[in-house]
Amino acid sequence: QSGSSLRIVSAALKQGQITPTELCQKCLSLIKKTKFLNAYITVSEEVALKQAEESEKRYKNGQSLGDLDGIPVAVKDNFSTSGIETTCASNMLKGYIPPYNATVVQKLLDQGALLMGKTNLDEFAMGSGSTDGIFGPVKNPWSYSKQYREKRKQNPHNKNEDSDWLITGGSSGGSAAAVSAFTCYAALGSDTGGSTRNPAAHCGLVGFKPSYGLVSRHGLIPLVNSMDVPGILTRCVDDAAVVLGALAGPDPKDSTTVHDPINKPFMLPSLADVSKLCIGIPKEYLIPELSSEVRSLWSKAADLFESEGAKVLEVSLPHTSYSIVCYHVLCTTEVASNMARFDGLQYGHRCDINVSTEAMYAATRREGFNDVVRGRILSGNFFLLKENYENYFVKAQKVRRLIANDFVNAFNSGVDVLLTPTTLSEAVPYLEFIKEDNRTRSAQDDIFTQAVNMAGLPAVSIPVALSNQGLPIGLQFIGRAFCDQQLLTVAKWFEKQVQFPVIQLQELMDDCSAVLENEKSASVSLKQ
Amino acid sequence: MWSRLVWLGLRAPLGGRQGFTSKADPQGSGRITAQVIEHLERLALVDFGSCEAVARLEKAIAFADQLRAVDTDGVEPMESVLEDRCLYLRSDNVVEGNCADELLQNSHRVVEEYFVAPPGNISLPKLDEQEPFPHS
What we know:
The complex is a heterodimer of chains A (528) and B (136).
Chain A: H1 6-14, H2 20-33, E1 40-43, H3 45-60, E2 72-76, H4 103-110, E3 114-119, H5 146-153, H6 173-180, E4 186-191, H7 197-202, E5 206-209, E6 229-234, H8 237-247, E7 278-282, H9 292-307, E8 311-315, H10 320-338, H11 357-368, H12 371-383, H13 386-412, E9 417-421, H14 430-433, H15 438-445, H16 450-455, E10 459-466, E11 472-479, H17 484-498, H18 506-510, H19 513-527
Helix pairs in contact in A: 1-19, 2-3, 10-12, 10-13
Chain B: H1 4-11, H2 34-44, H3 51-64, H4 100-104, E1 110-111, E2 114-115
Antiparallel strand pairs in B: 1-2
């Protein structure tokens, strides 16, 4: 059982077993109870309740907008939301209230979803832990799960219960924690180097990165324009497909969205014949730093496909070892350009200096950005200097082509889907994570995920099993460009095989058992 | 930003220029001179603020230098994964706008319908002319 899923609660809403307002209240109550996770920067309680009221009217009149009508969702705080503060967890945008909605936000609202709030992240989405924003770090709900706590009681060196809390991963950690703690049914993240897939793996969720060009970036405050995509975090693959169905499609406000007719994956078919599949295992992803538990699960997953008759091939992505370096250069250079818009004049933070424009810009940016952001801006500017442009920036662009071609070659050899780890290990304690700096951590943690962004491919992290410590481990599937539906179909089949356990946050769920009962009876009636 | 004197003083104990040479490249092609620092600070309008930031940049450069090992002869740079597609153009009609009030609301300094900027055409002072700022 996938626990409380979007599909099931949507059915309950349609059958009148629960109202959007009741659902909204339940989630708001959970948000309050889980405030210590620091998943939300802004909770838009009034907005959500008003939306719930409108949704209720629609259901009463039999005019529901679809599967997302009345469904609580959360949005990462680097997506513009009209009338709701959008900070990117940075002093530069603290207090900034956008006058428009990001296209993906508007699409969710148009489908009747309830916006519960804006979630926490690393400042400007730079980081792999969700620890480097001005509102503080996000805590992984699994730190408080029965599964983890029981394992830790066996450890004689059990310290103070909360000092060893775990990170969520990042940079969409707030969105991941929000979904994992049942405060919403889906959340938007962003994915530039793995920022949706990484926290999904650490929080036991489905983290989906669509093909570049499938989903509009309009209103997503940009980090790396040629790699950013909105990401989707849910508790099961079917739910991700529902959200993707609402979001995918061309947008006149984003010229990088493609205009091909796309088969919207509303309902994923059941994978009829696994034996027709060819799974590729990139050999360069087997690195010494990979934890033995993840390696073992990866191997078991490959065996699983093979035992069902699928072809499982080793493939080579020869430029893998250069992808982190290439990403580092391209990322910092695009960041240097994108961050130039923050000068204090039209929006955002402005310092008090009025001597000259340049002095004002410099002081504003010193005050507004943290060290991580400033470091990347400076590095990016270095690589873009006239004397460095060819050797660093253009060189990296050439290496990017080689990396993208590696994937093309792998898929051309008959592979349908690649299977890789998502992260090196399970989530680590915050105190351990902060021993290394942001850039080092990002370089380590992005290793399996960022090449996908450079090639613009779709990818999804699926939670597979719990580690010896009772923490989630996820694996990644990578698909061909614009074959998002096929990718999710394979992922759905795999999800059904592994039956990843539901997180047990017992104390929180007790109050909500009444609501869950309604959901259970709805699911029974679905089976007919 | 800090005064050149302070900066030079901090360099001295490391035995002169050697301390800043990246380990990965002993020839020190990634060496950050005071001129480069000043130039980058002016271009980026972001200051280094400390020695650690300079060291971080040097590490970032050393890291990026690993790209030299890749043979990219005859390889075209890739700007976008969608390079094989035509950019879709929309018709040249005004469909939205007239939202000056909304946009002006987000600015700290506005006079009527103008964003107010301090005087331009005044360069940032050079490093040795500046007051040392407290380190962040």
